[in-house]
Design brief:
Blueprint lengths: L12 H7 L11 H22 L2 H18 L3 H15 L23 E2 L3 E5 L5 H8 L2 H4 L16 H16 L4 E7 L4 E9 L5 E8 L6 H18 L4 E5 L5 H9 L3 E5 L2 E8 L5
Helix pairs in contact: 2-3, 5-7, 8-9
């Protein structure tokens, strides 16, 4: 009688079989086959451990992991470094924490504050009127504003106009229409622009970034796009973020492309860039 196994076995198994008066039929795997079979073996040993939970089955898992380490050329120093880095960032499993569910953030109940290298993003305030007038009276900045769907052109010349519009933003916030963050330069503690974000029923969020023209630099845009990508998908429960950048906004379009945005028509409008959610955990 012949029994089919077709699986990776420990090195001494053929000799043990021969000692039992049986004839093992074996072959040496190629490197690619070996790595693939080690994966299958790991799954086999983990399954056996889940059924038995003995120290012997635990040791079998370690043996397979050690073989994978050698086959893949993983270095102990690299493994230790990566483990330590992940442990520092996300912790270990010592506290026996079981995550049951995650309640979505509610930005309209408590607006979060975000920090980047150069900026703080917080809910806009009436106290920002003087600072933000520098941005919203800046002709070079105005050229790049996304005013699609807006009742005003965001071209302000007086502090009273600026204050009136901030009050309008805050009223819209209270009605859960969108969040308008003030972008505060940490070096000067002055608001130099705003970031607006809101979600829609189709799962697409609209991102607007208004900056004083002196801040329209790729390094600053990279920071603002990075914090938006990291936080806004979950905060606004969207699967895609859309933002606008006209052709002459070269630095902005470069930053968008570098951040993974793709040019696309959006709701019949040109000059938009879209980025779908990617797994961030």
């Amino acid at each position: 009688m012949t029994l089919k196994y077709n699986k990776l076995v420990r090195d001494n198994i053929p000799s043990i079989i021969t000692g039992q008066g049986k004839t093992p039929i074996t072959r040496v795997l190629s490197d690619d086959e070996y790595i693939s079979c080690l994966g299958e073996k790991l799954l086999e040993e983990v399954t056996e451990y889940l059924e038995d939970s003995s120290i012997e089955e635990f040791c079998d898992i370690l043996e397979v992991l050690d073989a994978i380490k050698k086959a893949k050329g993983f270095l102990s120093a690299d493994i230790d470094t990566i483990r330590a880095t992940k442990a520092k960032k996300n912790g270990k499993f010592d506290k026996k924490i079981f995550l049951e569910e995650v309640i979505a953030a509610m930005p309209y109940k408590h607006c979060p504050i975000y920090e980047t290298t150069n900026f703080t993003l917080r809910l806009v305030s009436e106290k920002d009127a003087t600072d933000l007038l520098v941005c919203y009276s800046d002709p070079k900045a105005q050229e790049l504003f996304n005013i699609d769907g807006f009742p005003h052109n965001c071209n302000f010349t007086t502090q009273e106009e600026m204050l009136s519009y901030i009050k309008f933003w805050l009223m819209e916030y209270s009605q859960e229409a969108y969040v308008r963050f003030a972008v505060v330069d940490k070096a000067t503690n002055k608001a130099i622009g705003t970031v607006e974000m809101f979600g829609s029923k189709d799962g697409t969020g609209i991102l607007r970034i208004d900056l004083a023209s002196k801040y329209e630099k790729q390094v600053f845009l990279d920071e603002l796009l990075s914090v938006s990508i990291k936080n806004f998908y979950d905060l606004f429960n969207v699967n895609c973020i859309a933002t606008k950048a006209i052709s002459k906004a070269v630095k902005r379009t470069h930053a968008l492309i570098n951040a993974g945005f793709t040019p696309a028509e959006f709701n019949g409008r040109a000059h938009y860039y879209l980025r779908s959610r990617s797994d961030l955990i």
